[in-house]
Amino acid sequence: MIVNDILNCITEIAPLRWQEHYDNAGIQVGDIGAEVSKALICLDITEEVVDEAVAKQCNLIVSHHPLIFHGLKHLTPETYIERAVVKALKHDIAMISMHTNLDNSYLGVSRILAERLGLVNLHILQPSADEPEICGAGMVGEFSTPMGEEDFLRLVANTINSPCLRHSAMTGRKITKVALCGGSGTPFMSDALRQKADAYLTADIKYHDFFVPEGNILLVDGGHFETEQFTKELIRDIIKKKFPTFAAEIAVTNTNAVHYYCKK
């Protein structure tokens, strides 16, 4: 087994051509032809994640978010990115990232979030022009039984294990059709409104964006990490389906950079 085997396994359902122009999905660190015996799966790569890979004798880390997003001009101890790269190279650990190409896959990030919420009749929120059935941003689905808005918020919070949710004003309507986008999905709010969704779940919503719904949709910010956390299981399952005996393990290191203070 080599690094490229794992890369090709994931890109079968999320080709690199589906990544956004600004992205850096694919090989991050190491030799694509290097032998690999064990992989650690994570959402973000930090020094602590590399330490976990070393401790568990993993010679590959597969992440959702790229560690190297912008060009590096030097490798020094100055930033956590550079320190993580140096440590990975020192221990012969390769890194690959599956980011917006996996976001844009019908079988990707938003689909698994929709399934965790129990939505059915799934289709892509903003389909791509070239491959609209299998590529695009976000997901739309329905609940078999409509629920109240507070029940929906409770379901979301419990599903993503969030202590609190930011949301727009209640609409007073039942929630049946839900649009969602794991991670930063504010640009697709207009698509959720166009498809007449009762609620739109995403993350990284700015203050003034909460005015946009004007009572037409319940807008919910579930947090970036929280709405993408199931990507770890998704990547592991893709690998294990192709290579059942390969050792692919989900990292236990918590990489959520956002912490919450909840007033009691």
Key descriptive features of the protein:
single chain, 9 helices, 264 residues, six-stranded mixed β-sheet, Udp-n-acetylmuramoylalanyl-d-glutamate--2,6- Diaminopimelate Ligase, Chain: A, domain 1, globular, 11 strands, five-stranded mixed β-sheet, 2 domains, alpha/beta
Please indicate the count of domains.
Answer: 2
CATH topology of the largest domain: Udp-n-acetylmuramoylalanyl-d-glutamate--2,6- Diaminopimelate Ligase, Chain: A, domain 1
- The tally of beta strands, per DSSP, is 11
The end-to-end span amounts to: 52 Å
Write down the Rg: 19 Å
Tell me what the CATH architecture of the largest domain is. Answer: 3-Layer(aba) Sandwich
Strand content: 15-25%
Q: Helices, strands, pairings?
A:
Blueprint: H1 3-11, E1 26-29, E2 38-42, H2 47-55, E3 60-63, H3 80-90, E4 94-97, H4 100-103, H5 109-117, E5 120-127, E6 136-147, H6 149-160, E7 166-167, E8 175-184, H7 189-194, E9 199-203, E10 218-221, H8 224-228, H9 231-242, E11 247-250
Parallel strand pairs: 2-3, 2-11, 3-4, 8-9, 9-10
Antiparallel strand pairs: 1-4, 5-6, 6-8, 7-10
Helix pairs in contact: 2-3
Written overview of the protein:
- Helix 2 (47-55) links the parallel strand 2 (38-42) and strand 3.
- The protein has 2 domains: 3-102 and 229-250, NIF3 (NGG1p interacting factor 3)-like (Udp-n-acetylmuramoylalanyl-d-glutamate--2,6- Diaminopimelate Ligase, Chain: A, domain 1), CATH 3.40.1390; 104-221, 3-Layer(aba) Sandwich (Udp-n-acetylmuramoylalanyl-d-glutamate--2,6- Diaminopimelate Ligase, Chain: A, domain 1), CATH 3.40.1390.30.
- The longest helix is centred in the middle third of the chain and has 12 residues, at 149-160.
- With 264 residues, the chain is an alpha/beta fold.
- The chain has helices at 3-11, 47-55, 80-90, 100-103, 109-117, 149-160, 189-194, 224-228, 231-242, and strands spanning 26-29, 38-42, 60-63, 94-97, 120-127, 136-147, 166-167, 175-184, 199-203, 218-221, 247-250.
- The mean pLDDT is 97.
- 29% of the residues lie in helices and 23% in strands.
- It has a 6-stranded mixed sheet. Strands 1-4-3-2-11 form a 5-stranded mixed sheet, sandwiched between helices.
- The chain has 9 helices and 11 strands.
